[in-house]
Write a structure and sequence with these properties.
The chain is α/β, with parallel strands linked by helices. The chain is about 30% helix and about 25% strand. It contains 9 helices and 15 strands. Helix 7 links the parallel strand 13 and strand 14.
């Protein structure tokens, strides 16, 4: 019940236990899940085949190294676009690695910021009658030249491998306000765009969305075709609460502005024929560039991931 206070005060956690520890399910995994939801940093090492005893590690060096790393004072400097309304937290993947413990002749399954890149996340807190809503920006460790960024039309998850690869390449990931009484609001997205471009971000972000969120990305892009570098949609559905005009009938502004499209679709895509194939045909008739990858995998295979990342990097140069 008090984990929120630790996360709020930027306290990093390290939990070590065995895969057969009776406390693993009841405590460690629940703490890990909740602390991630709160935006805190938690590293977990689970010793394969080990019970509750013996505690800790025979070789304490990984623990000592972790403590030394997390005792370093934080830089304290917030990005220039962040004002007092933004709260700081963290974003990192759940990718796991197996670490061999030579002294114990076993492996530990390890995940969290001690083993993967960890990025600062800033959420604008804007109270409303529907709850707290606002802009989210995830900051790379080092920004690429011209400060490229992705305007993501849906909430980010821990398995967002495309965004994680782009963060590693110096892209900012930006999530505009998504929740309102009637869905996304274009004026709020416009304000997010202005805030970031006023602070030196690229004038043409990449747009990204999955399912109906891709439709919202299209809706904003159609109204702002000169402000978009490219659109990437995963199993996209071209429907929007933001736009009153059917998106499939309003692709001309994007084609005229030369905005390239990439749809990555797999066997679970229910709208592949009725949306993606229609977009592909109409966009090419309008003289636009549309690429469709129709045999993707979930989760994304390495080849699919690199195609998307290379596409976005190339189009945002």
């Amino acid at each position: 019940m008090k984990l929120g206070e630790l996360a709020k005060n930027d306290v990093a956690l390290l939990n070590i236990c065995g895969s057969l520890d009776f406390l693993l399910q009841r405590h460690t995994l629940q703490i890990e899940d909740r602390y991630q939801q709160l935006g805190g940093r938690i590293t977990v090492m689970i010793k394969d085949g080990q019970a509750h005893h013996p505690h800790s590690l025979r070789n304490p060096r990984p623990i000592a190294d972790w403590i030394v790393e997390h005792m370093q004072p934080a830089e304290g400097k917030r990005p220039d676009f962040v004002n007092a309304k933004f709260n700081k937290s963290y974003y990192y993947s759940l990718e796991a690695t197996n670490l061999y413990l030579a002294e114990e002749r076993m492996y530990a399954n390890c995940r969290g910021p001690g083993f993967v890149d960890c990025y600062e996340r800033y959420d604008e807190t804007t109270p409303s009658q529907w709850g707290v809503t606002g802009l989210t920006v995830i900051v790379p460790k080092f920004a690429a030249p011209r400060k490229p960024w992705v305007l993501r039309a849906d909430a980010i998850t821990r398995d967002a491998v495309v965004d994680q690869a782009l963060l590693a390449r110096g892209f900012h990931i930006v999530i505009p306000p998504l929740t309102a009484q009637s869905g996304p609001v274009q004026t709020q997205w416009n304000a997010a765009y202005k805030l970031l471009t006023d602070h030196g971000f690229s004038k043409k972000p990449a747009m990204e969305g999955t399912g109906t969120a891709a439709g919202e990305a299209y809706a904003w892009a159609i109204e702002n075709p000169d402000k978009v570098a490219c659109i990437y949609g995963r199993n996209p559905t071209l429907r929007s609460l933001m736009s009153k005009t059917p998106l499939l009938d309003n692709l001309a502004p994007l084609a005229k502005a030369g905005v390239p499209l990439l749809h990555l679709c797999d066997r679970t895509d229910p709208w592949f024929n009725e949306h993606t194939r229609v977009v592909e045909q109409r966009y090419k008739e309008l003289g636009g560039q549309a690429t469709v990858e129709s045999d993707a995998h979930y989760p994304l295979a390495a080849g699919d991931l690199m195609r998307v990342v290379d596409f976005i990097i190339e189009k945002t140069k």
